[in-house]
Amino acid sequence: MKPMRFYTAKTMQEADKFTINTLGVPSLSLMENASSLFTQTLIELEGGIKELENKKILVLAGKGNNGGDALAVARRLLNYLERENIFIFVFGKDEEFKEDAKRQLQILRNLGALIFNIKEVSLEKFEGYLNQIDILVDGIFGTGLERPVEGFYKEVIKAVNRKKEEKKFRVYSVDLPSGLNASLPFPIGEAIKADVSVTFAGPKVAHLFPETIKYTGKTYVGDISIPNSMDFEEFTATYLLERPFIKSIYPKLENPTHKYKQGYLGILGGSIGKTGAVCLSALASLRVGLGLSTVIVPKSLNDIFEIKLTEEMSIPLEDKGLSHFGPYSYEDFEKKVLNSKIDALVLGPGMGVTPQTQAFVKKLLEVWEKPILIDADGLNNLAFYPEIIKTRKIPAILTPHFGEFVRLAKKFLEEYYGDISLEEIQKNILEIGSNFAEEYNSILVLKGERTLIFTPQREIFINVDTEPFLPLLRKLSFLGNPGMATAGTGDVLAGIIGGYLARLAKQEKDPSLKAALIGVYIHGLAGDLAALDLGEESLKASNIIDYISKAIKTIKNCERCY
Fold it and tell me: Are 543 and 401 found together in one domain?
């Protein structure tokens, strides 16, 4: 199965055209499906038809298909409310509307609906209507908006937001709050602040990120007959991490089995003051069905790991008493690790960055051909020679946060984007991340409030799940929480992904992508389960480890999975 896709404005437009022109689904059918699912959502969230009967609703409809959807919603609501309780404000004359929207407008006129041309009504009179209402349906602009709203539209949106704050009416946006750019993870100007967005086919980029969620509110996704499972060029390879999908790719625990059959992970890192990072990764790795986990550490620090760890083993490498790796460590690495039974390697937790570690990491990456995850200081050492990973047969998994990514990709960014600012990198992160993963033949796990996973094949996954709502409707569910913004959570993630990397290496030639997808999902879910019991403020990295088993059980026992 494929998880739900997410879209930019361009890819949504392409999917619409393909559905209408190639598959033959009439555009008016898509509009009818959209208005039906939107209306069902509104009725359900408002407590049912009985609760809705005495409420006043104002519908704002632009001249495009988004406005047509809103007008079709108004028509459906007339089945349940008195004509006098629905106020419809349109932005233009009938002949200015797109064909399907014009048809919806004509039907409403035939029904005797109360329709006002907002451009012919004073802003003061419009605000008088806002003072009366319980619900506002926003259908001014859809996913096609690319620039900030200006002039009269901006004044209308500001009036809606101001009156919403004063009068506490609820706002439901059709597809996307008017004023947002569907393709961007931050607002571009004035925009409607919705309580609920009902979008169609899949969420847009603006539904997924913290800065825009302040405007989109709770997002529900409706199936309007735009296919999700078909692979055509018109459809974007951008996906959510839904639980049924994770369950479908989750590795089975074989029976009978033995520890070497379940995978053997090496975790290489550690330096003075940073031994805890290695320990967190090791402790996490053995919670995911892994057979063996061994820390590979500087010799003079080995006693610390022998005391700290129990089930996890250790391999000390020569460090000349300096407590960090260097060229002097390579001979031990070659003897004890390179040709051992270790199936996969996590490189970097707590390693430190020195000229000596840079030389050691470079030499290691030249010879290690098995699956590898590079994290933390492993990435900071790699940043001096990132080209070394381009020719790997099994793509490396890279797990930077944004700052580490900028350091790692410095040469790439300068070569392809010139003097680009941090703000521009964030603005264009979907394109930049895809280009980097393709250019450097890597699985890029970009950690953040919304962790993104990029592949060399230009697929993008985002750590967002869905929950069942009504038939043909799902609600977005965001994995992770602010309590996870604490030291060590990245080390736990590296251990979880590393554990699956070694497990899957026993079953597949290239386990990197599956390990990354499963690991990211488990990490976010375990953090959320821990926060439910402990609270976000008290959450620390080791708590996430304690909830890995519960997260795995939650996936395996998923009742909505198929």
Answer: yes
* Residues 156 and 123 sit within 8 Å (Cβ to Cβ): yes
Residue 206 domain-assigned (yes or no)? yes
377/225 Cα distance (integer angstroms): 47
**At a CB cut-off of 8 Å and minimum separation 6, what does 263 contact?**
290, 291, 292, 343, 344, 499, 502, 503, 504, 505, 506
**332: how many CB neighbours lie within 10 A of its CB?**
18
Order of strands across the sheet with 313-317?
238-240, 460-462, 452-454, 442-446, 396-399, 372-375, 344-347, 264-268, 292-298, 313-317
Domain that holds residue 144: 9-236
Nearest by Cα to 448 from 217, 212, 246, 210? 210
| DSSP state string for 240-252 | E--HHHHHHHPPP
**Assigned domain for 473 exists:** no
* 235: pLDDT strictly greater than 80: no
pLDDT value of position 255: 83
d(CA 454, CA 435): 9
Q: What is the CA radius of gyration of the chain?
A: 27
**Do the domain assignments include residue 316?**
yes
CA distances from 331 to 271, 318, 351, 363, 552 (A): 19, 8, 18, 11, 39
Q: For residue 449, which of 212, 231, 227 has the smallest C-alpha distance? A: 212
Round to whole Å and give the CA distance between 345 and 365: 11
- Quick count: other Cβ atoms within 10 Å of Cβ 194? 27
Within this chain, do residues 406 and 550 fall inside the same structural domain, yes or no? yes
Spatial strand order of the sheet with 218-222 comes to 114-117, 86-90, 57-61, 135-139, 170-174, 196-200, 218-222, 473-478, 464-468
CA distance 560 to 242: 11
- pLDDT at 421 > cutoff 80: yes
Q: What is the spatial distance between Cα 51 and Cα 186, in angstroms, rounded to a whole number?
A: 35
Q: How many independent structural domains does the chain possess?
A: 2
Shared domain check, 277 and 320 = yes
Torsion sign, CA atoms 522, 525, 531, 536:
positive
Please give the structure tokens belonging to residue 505: 């290496």
Q: Are residues 415 and 501 in the same domain?
A: yes
CB atoms within 10 A of CB 56: 17
Mean pLDDT, to the nearest integer, of 163-176? 96
Task: Specify the pLDDT at position 561.
Answer: 67
2 found inside a domain = no
Q: 450 with 320, same domain? A: yes
